[in-house]
């Protein structure tokens, strides 16, 4: 049924206000009534139906011959928002309402009866109302894409290709242009965030159900081909990024190696780390504890934040291909825990394959200060060097450099500040070597410890004491088959505490030097080991 409307005085005022730049007129609902059993001719003074029986949201809208045409449906057996049934009344009047509940237009109907389904008759009625105004494009219409139609099925919002997510209505839209209204709409779209807005001569604003998807074709913003999914909070990328089309997007080799593409998938899953970029030159990654972010690419302009992220890049994502990797620690204090548990692929340089480098000129500019953790730890065949930084710890049994189970660390130009257990600790098959001279400015229970088959060496290196630190257990400890070598060792300055402690098959080799070769002010002890 198509019905012409008499525009009420309130409707005229609302239209004039809209056309004059005032409050936007937004049509939202159609209502039907039985006129209290007395048919009447509508008049402009009406502000409501005589006896409203049912109200529904607008189902569709179009502009035809300069008039706004809206469709609305009375379903067979559905309550409206006021819990009123859609049947068992004579349909004698119809009204068009805006979002403020104002009666914009009213029409008389032919007093048709809407029977209940229990009577054996079930009718679904679609009413088409025409509203003639001078400028239809100034008016917005909210439609319900799930309005019930024949057989009780629902109209779902179609799979749409949209032209972008925008907050302001475009000034000169073409017929059929469709947008997602943004989170902060302006103009005629105020109050309709996240709606689907389609230009049909007027703006048709519909609500998509949760889970509905659209394809964003906004090539002008570099977002072409992105799927968006309706969520409770708004619209979100359905799959990954703007470059992805299809339900599953396989990551490229470069994306896989980068390791920062959480929204992409690799198939089969077991190949996630199978593809690595092979280095073609020595490579440096940068880390900053204050300016970095582990989501960055690790460049000097966009450094990582943690040492672990930089190590993982070399160890898990790249093939060193015989080249060297440097992890440049920019000035600052590093409090992040770090552990290397496996060797990078393509290493041919031992501990020189990957180097943690601080500030060689002023090591105290780069401080690695850990609480309840070791500064650097290597195991499982991991090898690396540490240069140009200060190490210090707090918390029980924490040390500066620690290796075990095949881990190897080389160090030089390092300043050892206060540590709780040891400055240097090699255990259970780990190995640590001084590859260059270094300094000590703080004490520890032990400076250098080799236990349970661990090995350490200071051969031919000079240690400079910047203060007079105390080592409460001993400067050097070798126990349970651990071995420490200090052949040709030299020192500048002094320390206090026991010079060495050897037990249970431990070995300390000083190349035949006398028992006072190692620093300290108390004699060393040897119970069941060797001092040679």
User: What structural category characterises the helix and strand content?
Assistant: mainly beta
Strand fraction equals 35-45%
- Categorize the overall geometry: rod-shaped
Instruction: Report the average pLDDT across residues.
Output: 87
Strand count: 45
The whole-angstrom Rg is 39 Å
Low-confidence stretches: 147-157, 240-248, 266-273
Helix content: under 10%
Biggest sheet overview: 10 strands, mixed
Quaternary class: single chain
Q: Span between N and C termini?
A: 110 Å
The number of distinct helices, counting runs of at least 4 residues, comes to 3
Q: Concise description?
A:
5% of the residues lie in helices and 38% in strands. It is mainly beta.
Fold and architecture overview:
The chain is mainly beta and 532 residues long. Among the domains are: 2-147, no CATH class; 151-237, no CATH class. Helices cover 5% and strands 38% of the residues. The protein contains 3 helices and 45 strands. Strands 2, 3, 4, 7, 8, 10, 12, 13, 14 and 15 form a 10-stranded mixed beta sheet that branches. A 10-stranded parallel beta sheet has the order 20-22-24-27-30-33-36-39-43-45, with helices on one face. Strands 26, 29, 32, 35, 38, 41, 42 and 44 form an 8-stranded parallel beta sheet that branches. The radius of gyration is 39 Å and the shape is rod-shaped. It starts with a strand and ends with a strand. Mean pLDDT is 87; it is low at 147-157, 240-248 and 266-273.
């Amino acid at each position: 049924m198509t019905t012409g409307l008499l525009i009420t005085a309130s409707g005229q005022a609302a239209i004039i206000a809209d056309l004059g730049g005032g409050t936007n007129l937004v049509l939202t609902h159609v209502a039907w009534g039985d006129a209290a059993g007395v048919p009447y001719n509508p008049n402009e003074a009406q502000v409501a139906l005589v006896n409203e029986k049912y109200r529904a949201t607008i189902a569709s809208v179009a502009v035809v011959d300069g008039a706004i045409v809206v469709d609305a449906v009375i379903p067979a057996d559905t309550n409206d928002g006021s819990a009123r049934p859609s049947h068992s009344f004579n349909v004698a009047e119809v009204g068009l309402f805006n979002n403020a509940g104002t009666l914009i237009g009213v029409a008389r109907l032919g007093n048709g009866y809407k029977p209940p389904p229990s009577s054996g008759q079930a009718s679904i009625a679609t009413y088409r109302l025409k509203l003639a105004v001078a400028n239809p494009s100034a008016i917005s219409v909210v439609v319900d894409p799930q309005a019930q139609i024949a057989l009780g099925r629902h109209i779902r919002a179609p799979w749409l290709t949209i032209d972008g997510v925008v907050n302001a209505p475009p000034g000169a839209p073409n017929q059929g242009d469709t947008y997602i209204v943004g989170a902060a709409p302006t103009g005629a779209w105020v109050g309709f965030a996240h709606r689907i807005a389609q230009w049909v001569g007027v703006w048709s604003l519909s609500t998509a159900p949760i889970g509905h998807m659209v394809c964003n074709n906004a090539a002008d913003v570099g977002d072409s081909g992105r799927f968006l999914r309706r969520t409770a909070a708004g619209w979100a990328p359905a799959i990954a990024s703007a470059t992805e089309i299809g339900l599953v997007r396989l990551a490229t080799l470069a994306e896989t190696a980068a390791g920062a593409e959480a929204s992409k998938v690799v198939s089969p899953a077991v190949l996630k780390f199978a593809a690595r970029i092979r280095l073609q030159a020595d490579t440096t990654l940068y880390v900053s504890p204050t300016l970095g972010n582990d989501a960055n690419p690790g460049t000097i302009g966009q450094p990582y934040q943690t040492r672990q992220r930089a190590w993982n890049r070399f160890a898990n994502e790249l093939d060193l291909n015989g080249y060297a990797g440097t992890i440049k620690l920019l000035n600052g204090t590093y409090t992040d825990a770090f552990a290397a548990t496996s060797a990078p692929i393509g290493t041919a340089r031992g501990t020189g394959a990957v180097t943690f480098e601080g500030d060689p000129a002023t090591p105290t500019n780069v401080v690695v200060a850990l609480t309840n953790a070791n500064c650097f730890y290597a195991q499982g065949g991991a090898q690396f060097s540490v240069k140009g930084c200060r190490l210090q710890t707090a918390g029980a049994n924490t040390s500066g450099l620690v290796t075990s189970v095949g881990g190897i660390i080389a160090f030089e130009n390092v300043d050892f500040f206060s540590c709780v257990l040891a400055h240097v600790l090699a255990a259970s098959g780990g190995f640590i070597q001084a590859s260059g001279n270094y300094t000590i400015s703080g004490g520890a229970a032990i400076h250098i410890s080799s236990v349970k088959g661990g090995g350490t060496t200071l051969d031919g290196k000079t240690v400079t004491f910047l203060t007079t630190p105390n080592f409460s257990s001993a400067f050097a400890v070798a126990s349970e088959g651990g071995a420490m070598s200090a052949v040709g060792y030299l020192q500048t300055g002094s320390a206090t505490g026991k010079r060495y402690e050897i037990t249970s098959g431990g070995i300390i080799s000083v190349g035949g030097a006398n028992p006072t070769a190692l620093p300290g002010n108390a004699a060393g002890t040897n119970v069941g080991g060797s001092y040679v």
